[in-house]
Structure formats: C-alpha cells, structure tokens
Amino acid sequence: xxxxxxxxxxxxxxxxxxxxxxxxxxxxxxxxxxxxxxxxxxxxxxxxxxxxxxxxxxxxxxxxxxxxxxxxxxxxxxxxxxxxxxxxxxxxxxxxxxxxxxxxxxxxxxxxxxxxxxxxxxxxxxxxxxxxxxxxxxxxxxxxxxxxxxxxxxxxxxxxxxxxxxxxxxxxxxxxxxxxxxxxxxxxxxxxxxxxxxxxxxxxxxxxxxxxxxxxxxxxxxxxxxxxxxxx
Length: 232
What we know:
The chain has helices at 13-26, 83-88, 131-189, 213-216, and strands spanning 35-41, 53-57, 65-70, 76-80, 92-99, 105-115, 121-126. With 232 residues, it is of the alpha+beta class.
C-alpha cells in the first residue's frame, strides 16, 4: 500500500470545511472534491493525537490510498478526494485506515467512508492504548499543557491590566475631587483668581504709562553759586 509522508499542518480544518460548505451553497450543480475531517483520539476522547497518518483506501485498488493526510496538533486530518477520482467512485463505500509515521497499521475500518460528490463529512476515530501511540499521547499532553499555561498567563495579564486601570481611574477621581474642593473654597471666600494681563508681544506694543503731575512739571533751575575769595 502506498504511504506518502506528509508534513503536519496547523489546525485549519474548521475554516476549510466552512469554506467548502459555502462553495456548495453558491454553486450546488458543480461536483467538487470536498474535504472530510477526521479526528483521531486515544482513550481520552478530548485529546487529539498528532502526527498519525489517516488515509482513505482506493476502492479500485486497495493497495493505493485515495487520499492521505497527517493529523495536526489537535489530532485532526482533512482529506480531500481528487475530483476525477470522486466522480469515478461516487457513492462507493471504502475503508479508512490510521497508520503510524513508520507506516504500521494502527486501525482498519472497512466500508467506513462513502465517497460522495458535494458532501462534507466529519468522523471521530478512537484508538486503543498501545506502545505505538504512547509518544503521540505524550506529545498531545505536552501541547495541551502548553496551551493551558499560555491561557493562564493571558488571564493573569488581563487581571493585572484591569487592576492598573482601576488604580489609574481612582487617582484621576481623587485629583478631580481635590480640584473641585479648591475651586469651591476660592468661590466661597471671594478670592477667585483674576485673569492676568497678557505680556506684550511683537505685534502688540507695550502700554504707555502717563507721567504724574510732579514728573510732568518742569524743574526750576537754581542760580549758580558765586565764590568769594578773601584778600590776603
């Protein structure tokens, strides 16, 4: 049986299936090779197993794979049957297989998949505990722990930001109350500050100050002093 090694993909299965369903609604008369979502789990149905090969057996030649994919970090594998093959095997039941990365068969489900044009399908496949999937379970647990830690850190950061926001709002309220109290006290005592005159600028000349009466009156000149010399 042909077993192609494929690189794992990120978890985009949900968006891919939604796009396919939208395509069917837009043009239902056109036959399309639609994806099928398979989720591979172990004993814990909530824990998807990454790095396993899921394939649909070609009913025309059971030694070949009609479609094949590697499960992502969530244990999901999206398989798409080519358009030409989908037309030839339309409404035909075929087998589904789950393989290890080395190509060892971990699960065989005869007649588990019915290839149909313009149909989206989702299946959950559970594997029994075995040494072959132990490393995949460990990887899945590590991925889940890492995600839980990130979620916890994010929640803690959000709480910190909320406390900082509340503290800053409290400081602003206190300052506003102090300013209102100062204004009220000035208004009560009648000592409201008067607006000061603006400083002269280049465009506006400085105000002229009129001299006082004493300064404007001309000063009388005193007669010169005469010096008397004594005769010897």
